[in-house]
Amino acid sequence: MEPDTITILVIAALMLFHLAIGVPLFVVLGLGSMAMILGLDVYSITVFGEVPFSAIDSWALLAMPLFILAGEIISRGQTANNLVRLGEALVGWILGGLGMATILGCFFFAGTSGSSSADTITIGRIMVPAMKKRGYQTSYAASLAASGGILGVIVPPSLIFIIYGVATSTSIGDLFLGGVFPGLILALAMCIANYFVCKHTDWGVPESGKFSLQEVGASLWHAKFGLGAPVIILGGIYSGIFTPTEAAGIAVAYVSIVEIFIHRSFGFSELIKAFQRAAIVTGMLAPIIAFSVLFGEVLAILRVPSDLVTFFLDLSVGYVGSVALIILVLLIVGSILEPIAAILVVMPILLPIGVELGFEPVHFGVFVVCTLAVGFITPPVGINLFAASAVSGEPFINIAVKATPAFFALISGIIVIAAFPSIVLWFR
C-alpha cells in the first residue's frame, strides 16, 4: 500500500473517531482537510480560508436561511392545523385513517416547511394526542409523526435539495419538481404500512367510517393558503418568473402575510422568535457547508472519488447489485450523520458512481436524498425520533422500534423511485 494511501486512511479513521466522540462536524471536516493538505502537500494552505469563503458566498445558498425562516413562521401559525384537517377529511374514515392523516398532514405541511424536524414537531403536537384518544399506542403514534416528517425534506421546497444542488451544481428548481411524486409514493407506502399495522391491532378504528365530500370541500377551502405556497413556489420557478433563491424570499413574504394578516395567529413576538430560531439553524449549517466543500476539493485532488468509482465498478455485481450497495451505504451513512452533512461528505464520491451507472443527476439526487432521509428514523442519530420523543414523552428507542413498518415501507418506495426515472423526471 502506498504511503499516501496509508496517510489518507489514518486521517479518515481519526475523523470517524472524532465524529463518534461528538466533535462538531465542521471541526472534523476542517481539521481533516488541513491534515490532508499539510500531510500530503496537495494544496497551498491558503485554500483553507479561500475555499470555505467561496463555498458560502453563493446566491443559490441564500435560499437556505429564507426557507428555514418560512418554515419557522408557518410552524407557529394556523396553517398546520388546516392541513391536518384536510388529511383527516381525505382518509380519516378508513381503518387507520388518523395515522394516515398524520402522514398526509406531514406531506401537505412539507410544502411550506422544508424541514423534517419542523414537520415532526408541528404535526406531532396536533396528531399524537388525537391518536392516543383513538386508541393508538403512544409510541406508535409518535413513530408515525417521525416517519411522516421525513417528507419534509423530499416534498419541495426542501433544504436538502438546496444543499445537494449547490454541492453538485444541479438545478435546484429541477430537484424541487423531481421531489413531488417521490414524496407522494413514500407517503402512500407509509399509509399502506399503517393500514396493515392497524388491521392486526385494535388501533385506528374510525369513528364514522363514512367519506364526506362536504367535509373534504370545507377542509380544502380552509387549507387553501397552505396548499397555495408550494404551487406559487414551484410554478414561479419552473415558469421562469423567479429563481429558487427569489422563491425563498417570496415564500417568507407569503407565509408572513397569511399568518399575520389573514389567520391572525401570529404576533410580533412570535415573528422575532422565528427570526432567532432561523438564524441559529443557519449558523449551525453554514460552517458545515463551507468546510465540506473544502474537504470535497481535497478528496478530488487526491483522486479518492475516481479511485473508489473504479473499485466499485470492478466489483462486477451488475446494475441491480450496485444500486443495492448504494442504498446500503446511504442507509449506514444516514444512520450516523445528519442527511445534509451526509450529502456534503459522500456526494463527491457517490455522484461519479451514479453517473457511471447511468443515473441522470436530478434522478440520482432525489434517489440519494430519499434514501438518506430514512436516517431520520434510524438510531443512533435519528433526529425525528428525538423530536417525536420530545413531543410525546415516549423513550427514543420505543419510537424507533415502532417505526420499523414505516422503515420497510420507505425502502420499498425508494426501490421504486430508483427503478423508474420518469417518477422523478416527469417534467421533462
From TrEMBL:
The chain crosses the membrane at residues 6-39, 51-70, 90-110, 140-164, 176-197, 218-241, 247-266, 278-302, 308-333, 340-359, 365-387, 407-427. InterPro entries: DctM, TRAP_DctM. GO terms for cellular component: plasma membrane. The keyword Membrane applies. It is a multi-pass membrane protein. Residues 14-423 form the TRAP C4-dicarboxylate transport system permease DctM subunit domain. Its main location: membrane. The keyword Cell membrane applies. Pfam families: DctM. GO terms for molecular function: transmembrane transporter activity. Part of the tripartite ATP-independent periplasmic (TRAP) transport system. This is TRAP transporter large permease protein. It comes from Cocleimonas flava.
